[in-house]
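Q: Structure tokens for this one, please.
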Amino acid sequence: MPELPEVEVVRSGLDAAVTGRTLAGVTVLHPRPVRRHPGGPDDFAASLVGRTFAEPRRRGKYLWLPFTDGDALMAHLGMSGQFRLDDPGAPHPPQCRLEFRFTDGGPELRFADQRMFGGLWISRGGAELPAEVAHIARDLFDPELDLATVVAAVRRRRSGIKRVLLNQTVVSGIGNIYADESLWRARLHYDTPADRLSPARVRELLTAARDVMGDALAEGGTSFDALYVNVNGSSGYFERSLSAYGREGLPCPRCGRAIVREPFMNRSSYRCPACQRRPRPPAGAAGR
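A: Here is the predicted structure, written as tokens:
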């Protein structure tokens, strides 16, 4: 699933493409992406005609397109969902599932999804904050984020610190890629218990997470294949700047030791065995 930088790149592209425009027609080319709409594909399309988009919004990795009438179009990108902007009559992008046409006759919005894990649905009254994402914590770029509260929430957890970073109810937007990169920058092992970190250490880690995601955002996000692209079809290139994630066997940019890959929660974690040493067991643990 795209992480905060990738979703923000898409949100920004949609802002320039759809804000203030009114829908003239919607064509559902495959029913699966609108499976959450109770009335089915035809009702989904009819329900959108005549609505005007407000500025697209995001919380963490979650994206929605508000309407000026107070409802919103929720957008879950899944593993391969893409919004594309194309001229009317232009060929559809591969695996195009929906087409949105506008009253101004300008560029159309298409939703493509190769794996079809993503989806779109209408959130009634969700323009400001859809109920579907109300439980999601604020992210590190949110101007209303209370960093002290997040630091305290992290330190209350006994789980390994990477599990805490991935918990979207603690702080949102961080996925596997940017968790590994943040931990590398902060020189922390992913299994370090969160409650053993000092407030200053947690702040350092969260600052590293914000910095690495800011760097990724400046480079259009991280694209390992054609499944993630911006609305103009371009890929992000932060992959070239990764220090740990996906670099198994390559030298650590800081110390030269080979990066290792280890299993973690049905996926992988990447770390430097010299810079990110495994935490010591608590005193007395060996004799228990």
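A few notes: The mean pLDDT is 92. The chain has two domains: 4-133, 147-278.
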